[in-house]
């Protein structure tokens, strides 16, 4: 099996930006391995403990934080967002927490609202300021679907305002530490340090250029978590065992709540839901400048497959599916 996975990962081996792979079934790690380099400049190889920027795979942690607050009676899924974010225009009364979780809010894409001459990284609060200046939404909240990074930035702010904790601290204390994920964090430049950091790269004519951060990389709620495949194995176990969230919350998060632009895919709370072969698959990908990742779970088969990469090319979801097929 290792040789078959090695063959699928051959393109990530060697002296270029690399990847880490995890296969876990019923709480047992069947395979974990690193390929290629985490840091080209200092010649640091990828290992299963290398921390990659998860990009949009972060959304399941943001959604989990919200669900934990729901379990604690601090908010309701159908509460209006404006109750927690009064800076929003009147349409904030029509947007529910559930709408943000399922990309059904219709709020405008903050990436399109950024000043053309912006040079400083945005943070979650900046996303709120940008969208609050807009008088309308793409569609009436709750009536459509449009994938929204901004919606998850707003969810991170709601976590902060309801809990009284900084978002990164809430994730660490309530999700990561209880799951045993010692090197996973929502990374904040100048505040925290990624312990075993993979840097992102893009291919250039000389070879590879470090493209680790963009102007939106400091927004936490939509994509700011760093983790390793070894830590994510612990997260898979936490989801299976209900050690962080109740089984009912996990089930709710992975229900096919809304249809997406792809008729074969629905969205839950931080998860996409579809069918692969005869197996139900809950999954998410994550892409940002220098990173491409995929996390696939087959709950009825007890199987999870994760591929994390630190290069701005490749199709890790297709690779992860090919690896999953070896075990399904």
Describe this structure in words.
The structure is a single chain. This protein has 328 residues and is of the alpha+beta class. The chain has one domain (2-327): 3-Layer(aba) Sandwich (Beta-lactamase). It has helices at residues 2-8, 59-71, 97-101, 110-113, 124-132, 149-163, 167-179, 229-241, 247-253, 316-327; strands at residues 19-25, 28-35, 37-39, 44-45, 52-53, 185-186, 201-204, 207-210, 225-227, 258-259, 266-267, 272-276, 279-288, 291-298, 303-309. A hairpin with a 4-residue loop joins strand 3 (37-39) and strand 4. It is globular, with a radius of gyration of 19 Å.
Give a quick set of tags describing it.
328 residues; alpha+beta; Beta-lactamase; eight-stranded antiparallel sheet; three-stranded antiparallel sheet; 30% helix; globular
Which stretches of 5+ consecutive residues score pLDDT under 50? none
Q: Please write the CATH class name.
A: Alpha Beta
Radius of gyration: 19 Å
Q: How far apart lie the N and C ends?
A: 13 Å
What is the tally of beta strands? 15
The topology string of helices and strands comes to HEEEEEHHHHHHEEEEHHEEEEEEH
**Average pLDDT value?**
97
CATH topology-level fold name:
Beta-lactamase
Strand numbers in spatial order across the main sheet: 2-1-15-14-13-12-11-10
Q: What's the number of structural domains?
A: 1
Q: What portion of residues belong to β-strands?
A: 15-25%
Helical content, roughly?
A: 25-40%
Which structural class matches the secondary elements?
A: alpha+beta
The H-level CATH homologous superfamily, spelled out, is DD-peptidase/beta-lactamase superfamily
What is the CATH architecture term? 3-Layer(aba) Sandwich
Total of DSSP H or I helical runs spanning 4+ residues: 10
Shape, please? globular
